[in-house]
Amino acid sequence: MSRKFSQLAVVLGLGVVAAAGGYGAYRYLASPTVIDEPGGQAPAISLPDLTGQPRTLAEFRGKLVLVNFWATWCTPCLKEIPMLIDMQTRFGEQGLQIVGPAMDTPEAVRNKAPQLGIPYPVLVGDAEIVDAMQALGDTLGALPYSVLIDANGEIVFRKHGEFERDELEKLIASHLPKAG
């Protein structure tokens, strides 16, 4: 009986350690993380849109570009999309361009994007999306992941996690290209 008790204690102890580690990882990945270091020039990235046409970040040069990586199965991503749609509508004529690469199957994205009413370019891909996230500085692979690129193609802001409305409005307003 003593041997069974000690085996049970070991198994329970390992379970507690695993649960604590899992909870810690969840809290780390669930909380938004702003990456403050300057990002340098945005890399050359090309991904297909929903019609299969290649789109590049370079085609949006001269605009403030918010690249927002998302997926159809990502609850925080789906919660954030209506706000992104609103930002594109409000600030698009002032020089904002949101681009939404989806880390998902093209079929799932083609089905979900119209339901969401996304008015900005949605890009798809398999390993290419992961490569694009890494090229834009993602070190966690967590979604949503956003990168703000100024009109000159410089990365000015990166964030893991969901935006708050006020935070995103201030960020966009402070980096919009100046008219004139």
What can you see in these coordinates?
43% of the residues lie in helices and 21% in strands. The protein has helices at 2-30, 75-91, 106-116, 127-135, 165-175, and strands at 33-35, 40-41, 46-48, 54-56, 64-69, 96-101, 122-123, 145-149, 154-160. The radius of gyration is 20 Å and the shape is globular. It has 180 residues and is α+β, with helices and mostly antiparallel strands. Helix 2 links the parallel strand 5 and strand 6 (96-101). It starts with a helix and ends in a 5-residue tail after the last helix. The strands form two sheets. Strands 1, 2, 5, 6, 7, 8 and 9 form a seven-stranded mixed beta sheet that branches. The model is unreliable at 13-33 (pLDDT under 50).
Topology at a glance:
Blueprint: H1 2-30, E1 33-35, E2 40-41, E3 46-48, E4 54-56, E5 64-69, H2 75-91, E6 96-101, H3 106-116, E7 122-123, H4 127-135, E8 145-149, E9 154-160, H5 165-175
Parallel strand pairs: 5-6, 6-7
Antiparallel strand pairs: 1-9, 2-9, 3-4, 5-8, 8-9
